[in-house]
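Data card: per-record layout.
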Amino acid sequence: MEQRDKRTRIQDVAKEAGVSVATVSYVLNEKGNIREDTRQRVLKAAEKLNYRRNAAGRALVTKQAQAIGLIAPKGRGVTDPFFSLVAAGITEEARRMDYPTILMPGEVTGEEVVNEIQNHLIDGVFLMEIEEDDRRIHELKSEEVPVVLFGQTRLPVGWVDIDNYRGAWMATSHLLELGHRKIVHVSGPKNDRVSRLRRQGYVDCLLSWDSSLVPVVEEGAMTRESGYQLGKRILQLDSRPSAVFVASDVMAIGLMQAVLEQGLKIPRDLSVIGFDDIPLASEQVVPLTTISQNATDVGRQMARQMVAQLEGKVPEQHILMPELVVRQSTGAAPESKPAAYAAERITLKQGPAFCLWSEKGTIDLERGNQGVFYADTHWLNTYQIKIDGVVHQPVWTDVQQNGFSMRYVLELGDGTLDVRRKLVLYHRSLVDEWSWTRWGGNRDCDFELHVSPDFRDVFELRGFQSPSKGTRRSELGESGGESHLYIGKDGVTRELNIVVTPSPVDNELGFKRWKMDGTAPSGTFRFEISWMVPGGLVMHDEHRMDDVPVFDIENAIWQRVLKRSSEDIEMLRQDFGFGALPVAGLPWFGTLFGRDAIITAFQFLVTQPLYAERTLATLAHMQGRVRSAATGEAPGKILHETRVGELSNTGVVPFRKYYGSVDVTPLYITLLEATWRRTGKDDLLHQYLENAEAALAWIQNELGRSSLGFLTFEASESEGLVVQSWKDSSTSMVHSDGTTARPPLAVAEVQGYVYQAFKAMSRIYHALNRCDDAAVLDEQAVQLQDRFQKSFWMESIHYYAMAVDRDGTPLQVLSSDVGQCLWTDIIPQSHRKAVVHRLMGEELFSGWGIRTLGSSENAYNPYSYHCGSVWPHDTSLVVAGMSGTHFLDEALVLSESMIEAANLFPDARLPELFAGHPRTDEQPFPLPYPLACAPQAWAAGTPWLLLVSVLGLSIDAVNKTITARPSPMKIGSVTIEDVPLDSQTVKFVFTPEKVQIPSLPKEWIVKVASKETCE
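The structure for this 1015-residue chain is written out next.
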């Protein structure tokens, strides 16, 4: 990879001398009790590298701060309210850590800052405003000046930023949900980085909602006067908007002044939303709805980063998430019903039950993927609480795995209503408790419950049509409760009951109303909804939590993403009779999928092998035993998915027990061998040998049926899947001209899985002293690899085809499938470099992850399911392959990019997939795929596989060997505790210098691999 010339760093001296950064600092500053031979070694290294100590090195030793410079924004300086708040946060936090700050003018040059450093007047600098061509950043970086920016840069310096793009999306989405369609965006200067991001967020949100909507942007300066003038201009437009999203609160305040001077009302005539949440926003005549970025917290974070640098730590980057603050300046669009759409912001799961809610804690009829799900049935399609006829926005929300709490503050004119809510999801019920306290006033309020049961099969929500419906009965109880029965066409009775306390004043099916007495100081409401199915459909409940590894990662972004990953995989656990393992994803795939379960088990194999053991047991129990054209079942074949919903039970869809995947069966064999090797449990081989041999027999039989000698799939004879590899959408397999290839097809990574399975089964046979059987499989693996090389290699582009058809014609397109082949080892050593080069090129690497299809292909669509999108698990397998074949630089680049993408999604949660748009300065955020599952199992497993891959961590309990490498500098120290090893647990400590495993059993050995170029 390209190396850039740069000034020698203190880290370089430490590496040359073979000591820590702190030791170098003590030697160069003549501090500490350092051995003479070590001191001489450091001095010689510094002289050899022509090293000149910097402020960070000085501060690390002396612990005496001169001061930290704070460079104001150009032009605005201390008059900018947002800067004032950030500066206050910086000053407060820096002072707490004994560092004074000095305000410097925005026009100061990099050279002047360096002079201040060299004169020992300051130790570092905060830069509050960056531009695309700001030379100061480069000058400061080249001189090793400790610097923390407000705003992103590609340079490896510390920075803190707000997710401006997502904040703009939130603001625009809020207006759209209120029914507005004519929305103007008042933007800052065109070339201003922050303004550009907010403008792009507005445009993308508007068009993703409805592509026929027309973005309108008015540009100006980030001042009150500019906002005032733009407000007057907007009011003179021929087609006046009903809402305006303004890029800053200062501009918004000026704009509102212009609106009010015209005698117009806010929000009746014009809704206005700002950005920043400066103190003046809440003090306007009409308090301003805005996007809060908590400027003081930004400043505190910048100060903490600076002090960390001065103490010798690696610069970090942080993106803080904004929040929507709803006040009185936004309302429903005139003569328009507010849109019922609200994004699924809250996902809950308890055992086999899960539910999706809007950010307001509602389930809305018009949004089909919201609701309560259990046993492949959608139980509720409406659940809303209204006070005085309005669903209110909570001012505070706390979400846990199986519940949420919310708080609402309602102004009553003569008083305030303080409302608290706590909802808990159980295995077959939910309880929603409300309590309220009145502060002043005596006006009665209406409290209403709107609820509607559903009983639809989950496939109906995805567009499948039911040819006929069962019968429903509903009864209204005297005390306000309701009972609903649905007798499906499958003969199954599904029952939903609603219990309310106290009894309502008005009681109808689906509607309850209570009076909140104006003379009462407080009150409570309680609602319980339960659902029941016959015993045969009751899902196994898993009550006991597993022991999980405890981890601590120096890099805060990695720590945040891994924490979310662990929480998501815990949420997705479900017991199918052999111990809990993750379901595939919510809401559409909340059940067992063979492929997803196996890949997720691989991702967690090093740290949590129990998932792999349970996956082996569960899938062995459901292994195919008979032949069925309808379900794809065959003896030895491993399950694709299982369902218990009405459409599956009646055969409208074939997924009750469905075997329509070609790749799960070889993956099962590979998982068995890998799990045995990871755990050292010989019993696993004996317990599942029959299953593995049945799977092997199915594979070999299918290979024998293929004229090309590959594992292929035919078109489904039922309503099942047309494509039966992991890219299972019907249009995923394409030729270079963009046309769809039709089965039978031999897909690249599937042949890799077969090769991998042959090698794995050979190792199993060797362990069982069946060496002749092992030799046969080794020879079959070699022959398959030769056929693969001849049929799939495309010499013209130095890459492999995505697939070949029945005639042996290759699908000559760039695809991610080939990247997975690195993981399977089917690609010979001589061709790996060419494959990695293509994978890291701009056609396949989006800047966030590996695209499923190259951006230059005719069928490429960044928003498609499999023809240009990025799937995190797909990239994680590519990284595992690169790491295992010594392409460590590339593995780290992909890993860092995917973790950065995860950090930019809500709650640092990787979705099932996201759009394949390139990462650019104009588009510095990953764009979502509208219907992606989140949480999703193999997306949640991705960060763990990335981590163990870049750490080179593998555990071979059969040979009592652990292999690992020191952690990359960008990740810093990594500690993982409570990792199962034989009958105990161990702790791993990784630093950029070494690997430590305290209390390792004596018979074990550790092989520490070189980091090589993995920096």
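Known properties of this structure: The first helix runs from residue 10 to 17. The longest strand covers residues 445-457.

See the next section for split statistics.
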